């Protein structure tokens, strides 16, 4: 590496991080809801949320939030109490959240896609005083189904246009009969930055979803950090299709816009077909993204208007290297800021320079000034825990070697929970005595890798990585390689067990671009491509053709259910194929040839 280039990168990074710290520190002078009320006073008539072409000004949203606050006050709720809300992407989510915050009441964000026992678990995971759910017959039916398990919890429906069953009260009637009287900030005057603002649930990939404790400080940090990264300002118009029940939607997107005093165009559900027409119509300037969202946009048929819009920056996490340049070029995007973080953790990395594929940079010099002291260490794939050297301490990895990301736990969080969960669940997230006796680090559960210039790249989510033929297989690396093929829209890679074999073999569930087919030519092309691009141990032995991508609400590939079904031709109704070296293609897997294939030298 050029020493001078490295120093130049270091200086630029230090300036960015110093400016970010100063910006966030300034925002911590008041609470999250104070930011909202300040903008209401300063620009009451400015559009804050545009939803279904209806404009809600800052003043409009505040009046609705005041109604919510007065209702909650009449219930006897006080600061540090909690209310659970299960509302889709619509303005009522925001005014309900902000209204409860006016009283200092914490809010538990419930994923509106949950049903049955996972829904019960999430609602009862924190000691909430009430549940407010939003519009949609499907939400009403989901709540009715579990009511007996909620132990007489007060339940209120908002935006439901049909008679309500016994046990559920109308929140709409309360809103109509309650005056939007201003709430005095003195009611929340004793709240501190360490008090809980909201609970946001993990995905549950390592067990049941766990409610992450998001303090006022943490929420302000996320909002301010994302505002800074995207250089969001008063004149920006931000497009939000990300779920509000998650950090990505409520804080990373709407919260950042709120801190900036900007406008948000809110859409109930992501639509690849309407995405750019929405952006053009509303003159959107900032697009937050997560997971595979940008890949779905790229998979749409090309349009002569693809590069015609007002977008100046996209920012988020999960932009895969294999589509990075194609996306920016096709849609004429001036700037992308890719970052890496986790809801339950306390630090993040950011790619300020636009380096292709990078999620940030971490040089030895930068680390000396980094209070989070982020480091990549050797790890055990089975336990997703650091390996220890003879001295008992963690072992940093070399350049180019995938390592488990750790960051130092801030002093104000030592002894406190990251999750509203058991001591055991919280302890699993921590690494004690990592480098010196008594220190405490957070385990991110992900592997990253550094290049010679100290740029960081996401390598894999370690729960997804598997071993085959004595080698670690990165699902992300395999998915990136397969995604290059023009007929593949999305590739979801995971490991499946084969009787009598150590480790897990690779399997990929693929969805196709619109209008494509998976015929003999495509199967042969897929075979040739994986043989050429991937080492022997990483080539998927099985391929499943699914009609559409199987994703979470935050646009991440879902793997657990697919891996459980595996290559069982009796359970899987989608077309299945196996890596057929004899015919140099992927051949349809049937009950007749499966046994023969499994007995072959895999």
TrEMBL record:
Domain of life: Eukaryota
InterPro entries: AMP-bd_C_sf, AMP-binding_CS, AMP-dep_synth/lig_dom, ANL_N_sf
Signal sequence segment: none
Keyword Ligase appears in the UniProt entry: yes
Record's catalysed reaction(s): a very long-chain fatty acid + ATP + CoA = a very long-chain fatty acyl-CoA + AMP + diphosphate; tetracosanoate + ATP + CoA = tetracosanoyl-CoA + AMP + diphosphate
UniProt domain AMP-dependent synthetase/ligase: residue ranges: 36-362
Enzyme nomenclature, EC number: 6.2.1.3
GO MF term (any one): long-chain fatty acid transmembrane transporter activity
Pfam family, one: AMP-binding
GO cellular component: endoplasmic reticulum membrane; plasma membrane
Keyword vocabulary terms for this entry: Fatty acid metabolism, Ligase, Lipid metabolism
One Gene Ontology biological process: long-chain fatty acid import into cell
Family: Belongs to the ATP-dependent AMP-binding enzyme family.
Name this polypeptide is given: long-chain-fatty-acid--CoA ligase
Source organism per UniProt: Elysia crispata (lettuce slug)
């Amino acid at each position: 590496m050029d020493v001078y280039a490295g120093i130049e990168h270091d200086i630029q990074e230090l300036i960015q991080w110093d400016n970010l710290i100063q910006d966030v520190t300034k925002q911590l002078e008041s609470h999250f809801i104070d930011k909202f009320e300040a903008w209401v006073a300063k620009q009451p008539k400015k559009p804050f949320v545009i939803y279904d072409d209806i404009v809600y000004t800052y003043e409009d949203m505040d009046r609705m939030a005041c109604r919510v606050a007065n209702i909650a006050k009449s219930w006897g709720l006080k600061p540090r109490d909690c209310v659970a809300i299960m509302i889709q992407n619509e303005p009522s989510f925001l005014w309900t959240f902000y209204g409860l915050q006016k009283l200092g009441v914490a809010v538990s964000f419930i994923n509106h896609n949950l049903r049955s026992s996972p829904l019960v678990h999430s609602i009862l995971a924190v000691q909430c005083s009430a549940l407010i759910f939003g519009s949609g017959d499907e939400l009403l039916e989901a709540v009715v189904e579990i009511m007996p398990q909620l132990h007489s919890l007060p339940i209120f429906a908002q935006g439901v246009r049909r008679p309500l069953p016994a046990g559920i009260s109308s929140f709409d009637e309360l809103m109509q009969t309650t005056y939007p009287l201003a709430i005095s900030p003195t009611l929340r005057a004793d709240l501190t930055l360490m008090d809980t603002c909201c609970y946001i649930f993990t995905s549950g990939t390592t067990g049941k979803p766990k409610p992450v404790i998001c303090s006022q400080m943490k929420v302000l940090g996320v909002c301010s950090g994302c505002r800074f990264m995207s250089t969001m300002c008063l004149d920006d118009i931000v497009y939000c299709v990300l779920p509000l029940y998650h950090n990505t939607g409520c804080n990373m997107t709407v919260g950042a816009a709120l801190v900036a005093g900007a406008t948000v165009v809110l859409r109930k559900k992501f639509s690849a077909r309407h995405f750019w027409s929405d952006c053009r119509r509303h003159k959107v300037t900032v697009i937050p993204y997560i997971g595979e969202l940008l890949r779905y946009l790229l998979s749409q048929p090309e349009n002569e208007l693809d590069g015609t819009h007002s977008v100046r920056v996209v920012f988020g996490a999960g932009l895969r290297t294999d589509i990075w340049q194609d996306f920016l070029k096709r849609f004429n995007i001036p700037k992308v800021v890719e970052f890496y973080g986790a809801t339950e953790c306390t630090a993040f990395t950011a790619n300020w320079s636009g380096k292709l594929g990078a999620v940030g940079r971490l040089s030895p010099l930068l680390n000396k000034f980094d209070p989070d002291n982020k480091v990549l260490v050797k790890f055990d794939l089975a336990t997703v825990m650091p390996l220890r050297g003879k001295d008992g301490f963690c072992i940093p990895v070399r350049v180019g070697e995938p390592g488990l990301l750790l960051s130092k736990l801030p002093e104000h969080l030592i002894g406190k929970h990251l999750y509203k969960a058991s001591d055991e669940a919280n302890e699993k997230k921590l690494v004690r005595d990592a480098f010196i006796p008594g220190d405490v680090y957070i385990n991110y559960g992900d592997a990253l890798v550094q290049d010679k210039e100290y740029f960081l790249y996401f390598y894999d989510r370690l729960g997804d990585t598997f071993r085959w033929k004595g080698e670690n297989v990165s699902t992300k690396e395999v998915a990136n390689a397969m995604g290059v093929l023009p007929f593949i829209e999305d590739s979801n890679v995971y490991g499946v067990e084969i009787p009598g074999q150590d480790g897990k073999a690779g399997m990929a569930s693929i969805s196709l671009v619109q209008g494509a087919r998976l015929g003999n030519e495509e199967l042969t092309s897929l075979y040739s491509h994986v043989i050429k691009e991937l080492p022997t141990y990483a080539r998927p032995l099985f391929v499943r053709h699914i009609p559409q991508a199987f994703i979470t609400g935050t646009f991440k590939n879902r793997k657990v259910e697919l891996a459980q079904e595996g290559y069982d031709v009796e359970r899987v109704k989608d077309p299945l194929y196996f890596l057929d070296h004899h015919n140099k293609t992927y051949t349809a897997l049937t009950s007749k040839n499966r046994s023969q294939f499994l007995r072959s030298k895999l």
